[in-house]
Amino acid sequence: MATLTNIYFRGRDSRCSVFILLYISVVLPLIITIDAEIQNDHRSKCRNDSYYAEGSHFQSNLNTVLHGLVQNTPQSRFNTSVYGQSPDQVYGLLQCRGDTTKDQCNYCSQEANTSIRQYCGKAFGGIIWLDLCYLRYNNSPFIGQLDTHNFWCNYERNTVSSPEVFRRDLEDLFNELSAKAVYGSSTLYASGTTNNLSPKISALVQCRRDMSTDNCKSCLTAATTFILKKYYGSKGVRCYVGSCIVRYEIYSFFGSPSTAEAPANKSVATSLSKSKHSNKIPTILGVVVGGGLLLALLVCLFTTRRRLKSAIYRREYEVHEQVEEDTLVGEDRQIVAFKMETLVAATENFHDDNKLGEGGFGPVYKGATHDGKEIAVKKLSLTSMQGQKEFRTEVKLVAKIQHRNLVKLLGCCDEGSEKLLVYEYLPNSSLDKILFDPIKRKELDWKKRYNIILGVARGLLYLHEDSQPRIIHRDIKASNILLDEKWNPKIADFGLAKLFPDNESYVGTLTKVAGTPGYMAPEYAMHSQLTAKADVYSFGVLLLELVTGRKNMDYNLSPEMQNLLRWVWRSYEGGNNVEIVDPVATIESCDEEQALRCIHIGLLCTQVDSSLRPPMSTVTLMLSSHSVPLPDLTNPVFANSDSRINLSYSSSISGLSRASATTSSSSSDLVPAPPSNAYSSSIELVPR
After folding, report:
1. Distance, CA of 579 to CA of 581 (rounded, Å)
2. Which of these, 62, 63, 189, 207, lies nearest to 134 by C-alpha position?
3. Quick count: other Cβ atoms within 10 Å of Cβ 84?
4. Which of 197, 388, 474, 672 is the least crowded, having the fewest Cβ atoms under 10 Å away?
């Protein structure tokens, strides 16, 4: 929500300040109150990437699933349901807390059913946590799958007097209850209290009953570790994770499944009804009052002679404390979930002076955390067409892979409509901004260029052969190579990456291609055949760009020089090797033998026949050792403009270039191509 206190009015428009003051003093407190009411009543996360139509098959199937879950769950406290046929199939799960009675479970189930429809509307997926039950539905399978990405925590801000002792007692209690839930309970539930009285801690843990023992243990470990780290000394915490819940208080809040008595039906129903309807009155009032004042405010703003666009762009952020997590626990390492208020402070409210650049999906800003660490924050544009899948792909992959020549993802932020990624800050920006700038390129002597070539090769070797999973990047280019303070290269932007099985280099034939014209291998661009050799080809183009200081296509040059590969091949074949190397790089530090070897390797990597291109292991070896012999060359793409394959490929690239600088696929297993700015992507914390 925009906070407009930093917009000032002068002259005849000063009357607008009255509306602003009224808006701030009346509407904002009301909305904050409403938000607090809702936060106390429920915790929900909804799919916001797509919605089903009124009267659709999906809606009918969803009604069937939710009705069946509400009817059948109270008896056993747990139930799952799958109904319908793809693509309208609905998966559902409902579970009550392990200490609930049948009546308590029944009332909570009905409330969850009502609330999830109210708050998630026509979303294709949603989750709602109430104190006594958990309800989830989706149009893709999730039953039996571990989920530690959906995460909601609330905590008591007051702390205990002896946090060290309290933490030790709490950790012991968590360990004891987790062991009971995982290994000693058919319902994966356990509750208990500590023996000490200063203070006495009551806690419960529970996993979804569709979890295996290993998955239950993983979820509880992640949740309890997070609580002990984040909420040090708090008097009470509730954490709701996709696959488990953990809660503790310094008072008793649970009953034994065998001894707990259900409250009178009337009192329970009254409590639930009161909770539900208590939100409606302030909500309606907020809409009416807020809508009127907001309309007046908008009219007032339009009467001013200020640039509305600038005011909106430089808006302040109102931060809701609805996301309390600090870390999302992945399979291999942790990804920090930054709060919006942290990133707003770090970037000085995304000030223009901190803007590093802007790609097709939004701007990138330099920032600094409270401890002085520099970061780069990618802010997804609200009008961007960037897909959720691209964002999820990049986060999943970069979280699992670590190499000195791969950019490091520090974390993300997903609050409301705002989605941001946080990377390590690399002061020398992207390679294209240095290499193709007539002034800055002078900073890239031959030693630095060779170091970049070798670093990118090592990064690709890691992705192709050493990482788990093995990865084809699909978009190796100058703008996706970032440079640190020592000019070391780091491969960025994994939004288009594809996995391929161990001991294989062939992914398969895709519906359409996705990549950047000029860097795509011919067999991939024309026939959609994707192998690791597609990255080898892109690397070869990048290598020749570094050697020559020229873009792969430059229509400002004479026709015979516009295509880099054709020009390099003809010069190399004619023995004019000195002309190929960028004069800027030859002034002082160029190793002529090393440069000629790089040209030969670049041409090897861009051969038409993918089987003739060396794998990255061989490329790295040839670059590192001058004693390794170099294979003979064949004509690369574009070497002969009369060749049918070259004409076909040229036509294909020409069409792609007119459409966009980067192509993307409409296939369901492909994702939209990223912008030229390498700090890119988006995330959705609710799994699809």
Report:
1. 6
2. 207
3. 17
4. 197
Global confidence as pTM: 0.50
Amino acid at 354: N
Q: Are strands 151-155 and 189-193 parallel, antiparallel or unpaired?
A: unpaired
The per-residue pLDDT for 573 is: 87
Instruction: Pick 43-138's CATH classification: 3.30.430.20, 2.40.50.140, 3.90.25.10, 3.20.20.60.
Output: 3.30.430.20
Q: N- to C-terminal Cα distance for the chain? A: 27
**Tokens read off for 235:** 């008097």
- Residue 398 DSSP code: H
Nearest Cα residue to 488 out of 444, 526, 527, 518? 444
Local structure of residue 573 (DSSP, 8 states): H
| Inter-residue contact 72 to 102 (CB < 8 Å) | no
Q: CA 314, CA 353: separation in Å to the nearest integer?
A: 12
Q: What is the pLDDT of residue 281?
A: 45
Do residues 202 and 250 lie in contact, with contact meaning Cβ atoms separated by under 8 Å?
A: yes
Which residues are part of the catalytic machinery? 475
Residue 468 clears pLDDT 50, i.e. is over it: yes
Reported residue count of the chain is: 688
User: From the centroid of its chain, how far is CA 570?
Assistant: 44
Q: Give the DSSP letter string of 302-318.
A: HHS-S-HHHHHHT---P
Tokens of 530: 């994707």
Q: Answer whether the bond into residue 74 is a cis peptide, omega within 30°.
A: no
Residue 610 one-letter amino acid: S
Distance CA 427, CA 448 (A): 15
Digit-coded pLDDT (tens) for 304-327: 433 333 333 333 332 323 333 344
Q: Does domain 151-249 have CATH number 3.30.930.10?
A: no
What CA–CA distance (Å, rounded) separates 529 from 502?
18
Report d(CA 662, CA 477) in Å as an integer.
Answer: 11
Per CATH, is 431-502+530-636 categorized as 3.40.50.720?
A: no
